[in-house]
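Section 5: illustrative case.
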């Protein structure tokens, strides 16, 4: 099982458990998240939901690239994958319970999406963040862009996406990607404290704030969804996308042509 779902006291934990691949998130793990969130949402004993990666090397090094050839290349499969991701992100963002990401090591691509879907993000000094879609020829999805924009603003969102580089924990803090950075050894006790507070505080006050904030950041209705989907499809069907994922698997630098 590569997504561990466990209730510990009043906390629902979701743990990405694929350490041989730096906790990359495979299809089965993505699919398990909405059901786990629904289970925790329904459970009155659960007062807070927390995400982490197994061990301390990685939160999650993004989606599992070894599956892209099969699951994220055909036109229908790309749309299905994007729908799945939407369901995952909405299941986290729409939860009435406070959600939190505890981050050691690599937090890349889909790992950042999960973290940004959470209400709170705390990381160790070892954390490294990045969204390397442009290094893979990959079309990052709509909801992920929206959340990134809301979190770090236009200028930083463009730099993060265009350069696809990695940022250390202090840089991530300065950009507003995380609420706090701690020495690795202090991260878990700090997060335990935060969780205790979240579990003691009034659930309906927290749920109220979540509802209001989510309503305020809803799309104004002027965003052209068809134009966004066309941009995603153009990228998803490109030769560069094939080149990007093959180059990663073959451990070589990709040669992109814009086709
Ligand atoms: N999908 C599939 N496999 C992945 C992976 C991913 N997202 N990230 C890491 N792995 C695998 C590597 O292929 C490698 O497999 P191998 O042992 O069979 O060769 C293993 O995990 C260890 O990774 P490695 O690259 O050797 O470790 P590293 O410490 O040198 O670098 C990363 C770690 C995370 C920086 C690097 O693996 C990386 O860039 N991963 C891809 C990140 C990415 O692009 N994510 C976005 C996807 S949307």
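Designed sequence:
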């Amino acid at each position: 099982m590569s997504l561990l779902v466990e209730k510990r006291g009043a906390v629902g934990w979701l743990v990405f458990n694929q350490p041989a691949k730096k906790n990359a998130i495979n299809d089965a793990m993505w699919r398990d998240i909405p059901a786990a969130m629904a289970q925790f949402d329904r459970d009155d004993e659960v007062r807070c939901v927390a995400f982490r990666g197994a061990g301390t090397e990685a939160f999650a090094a993004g989606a599992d690239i070894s599956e892209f050839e099969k699951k994220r290349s055909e036109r229908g499969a790309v749309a299905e994958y994007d729908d799945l991701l939407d369901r995952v992100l909405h299941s986290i963002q729409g939860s009435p319970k406070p959600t939190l990401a505890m981050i050691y090591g690599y937090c890349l691509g889909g790992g950042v999406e999960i973290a940004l879907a959470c209400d709170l993000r705390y990381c160790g000094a070892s954390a490294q963040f990045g969204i390397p879609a442009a290094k893979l020829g990959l079309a990052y999805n709509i909801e992920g862009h929206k959340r990134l924009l809301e979190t770090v603003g236009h200028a930083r969102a463009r730099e993060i996406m265009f350069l696809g580089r990695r940022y250390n924990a202090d840089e991530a803090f300065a950009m507003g990607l995380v609420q706090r950075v701690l020495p690795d050894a202090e991260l878990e006790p700090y997060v335990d404290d935060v969780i205790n507070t979240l579990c003691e505080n009034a659930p309906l006050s927290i749920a109220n704030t979540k509802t209001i904030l989510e309503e305020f950041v809803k799309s104004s209705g002027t965003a052209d969804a068809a134009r966004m989907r066309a941009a995603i499809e153009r990228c998803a069907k490109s030769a560069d996308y094939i080149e990007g994922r093959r180059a990663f698997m073959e451990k070589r630098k990709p040669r992109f042509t814009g086709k």
